[in-house]
Write a structure and sequence with these properties.
alpha+beta; 280 residues; globular; 3-stranded mixed sheet; 60s Ribosomal Protein L30, Chain: A; 7 helices; 4-stranded mixed sheet
């Protein structure tokens, strides 16, 4: 296996915490799980304890499958009131895995959740296994940017590159934001056109995804306070100021995106025209 082998790149990045290994990540937390009913101070301390053990330099950015295995004393579970229901433990653990110091941006990313317990003679502890699409991750630190669809998109100035991390230039950073702006605005218009053509809400949602970025947006209420956040107006103002001295660097990209927008809108018109009211 050579240094240029994709598997070696993936392994090297996973070894330094830059990426999950082809979408998979595991960690054992040698701390006792805390149920949600134990109160705010205990939950806060538990969250800090979880995040103190995390060394990942990435976030999962898409939907994930998450498995929690609690290692606990079976006699305490079955014959005492010292433990809680499994779902009570899951909520606190998910809270510890999300946010600026976590591995998830938000727990709405969890599409599948499996919680189980195993008997152990050791002090209580728990294991976490997460799996997702291999490319659905983004490097820390992450900031959120508001887009025309009123959702907020995670953006990093660090780019994964063959098991390492490169800094994104201002040009690449703003180009990425302009792409998100284009796809989010087109997505919103296509949903509206599909609904007008007779599609139901779910059909409109999935139709809009055909023309949107693979990076998902988040509702403002789902973003932890610790993340930097940039409104649509603020980042557009910053872009306008940057263009005063760097306009030619991004002019070609803006022209190309303008052409793409027309193509996307034409595709959306065709898509909406194929939806009959009786199919809604």
């Amino acid at each position: 296996m050579t240094a240029n082998d994709p598997i070696e790149h993936e392994r090297r990045g996973a070894g330094t915490g830059l990426n999950p290994m082809f979408g998979d990540w595991q960690h054992r937390f040698n701390i006792a799980p805390v149920p949600y009913g134990d109160g705010g101070p205990k939950r806060a301390a538990f969250r800090q304890a979880i995040q103190a053990q995390l060394t990942n330099q990435f976030f999962y950015s898409g939907e994930v499958r998450l498995e929690i295995t609690l290692h606990m004393d079976v006699q305490s579970i079955l014959e005492t009131s010292d433990t809680a229901d499994l779902d009570n433990y899951a909520k606190c653990i998910l809270d510890g895995l999300k946010g600026p110091d976590g591995v998830l941006l938000d727990d709405t990313q969890v599409q599948t959740l499996i919680v189980s317990w195993l008997d152990t003679a050791r002090p209580p502890h728990f294991d976490i296994e997460i799996s997702s699409s291999p490319d659905d991750f983004i490097l820390k630190p992450v900031a959120f940017y508001e887009m025309p669809d009123r959702l907020w998109y995670p953006v990093s100035r660090k780019l994964w590159n063959e098991g390492g991390a490169d800094d994104a230039s201002d040009r690449d950073h703003y180009a990425g934001l302009l792409i998100y702006e284009l796809t989010s605005s087109v997505k919103r218009r296509i949903r509206h056109k599909l609904r007008q053509a007779g599609a139901d809400r779910l059909r409109g949602y999935h139709g809009g995804k055909y023309l949107s970025s693979s990076i998902r947006g988040f509702h403002r209420s789902r973003i932890d306070d610790g993340f930097d956040k940039h409104t649509l107006q603020s980042w557009k103002s910053a872009l306008a100021a940057w263009k005063q001295t760097h306009g030619p660097e991004i002019e070609e990209i803006e022209n190309g995106l303008a052409g793409m927008k027309e193509t996307y809108l034409q595709f959306g018109d065709a898509l909406a025209g194929k939806v009959r009211p009786d199919e809604a």
